[in-house]
Amino acid sequence: MEPKKNIKSDVSRNASLFFAVGLALMMTLTYLTINYKSYDKSDIDIGQLNVDDEFEEEIPITNQEIIPPPPPPPPPVVPEEIEIVEDEKEIEETVIESTETDQEEVIVEVEDVEVEEVEEDIEVPFAVIENVPIFPGCENEKGNNAKKQCMSNKISKFVNRKFNTDLASDLGLTGKQRISVIFKIDKTGNITNIQARAPNPALEKEAKRVIGLLPKMQPGKQRGKAVTVPYSLPILFQVQD
Known about the structure:
Layout: H1 15-34, H2 51-54, H3 144-162, H4 166-170, E1 175-185, E2 191-197, H5 201-212, E3 220-222, E4 225-227, E5 229-239
Antiparallel strand pairs: 1-2, 1-5, 3-4
């Protein structure tokens, strides 16, 4: 007959449990030992914070300029003594006589004064006048335009006939010579205010001489009244070499 062991007396019954618990304790102890840190108290200095030093504001020192008071005003000027002098001169009083007539004074009646009307010298340009001046020989032309053309042709022929064409060559001028002439036909038909412009004063003088020889014309009319008519005439001729 085999002997039987008591179950409680079997040591190997909880060996695995004890091994696991021991292993856990050793691992925990090892972890704590590795992560353990120690500090030297003599090397630690957390310093001291002085709050009053940070918030202390440095106030700059300023010098206040002292403005001197203004000087006192000058004393008032003492007026000079006025010497009263008696006026020995006699002043003549001006007597203003009344312009009103006396009832007994005879009033002389003045006759009516005739005022002479002065007619204004009206100028109307040749291009817009209602009735152009009529050059002698253009009386039979019909219409204002026909009379203008007739007048221009008559004046051009007159100037070509009277102008001294040898004058330009005598002065040593060559080529084309242009003379601008302006004159007026007044309300009586006479030639007035002759003006000329040319390259040479001698040509201007000759142009004025020729225009002054133009015959008297019938004056131009505007609204039935005789008026002054300005007229411009260009003179162009070729100097023969």
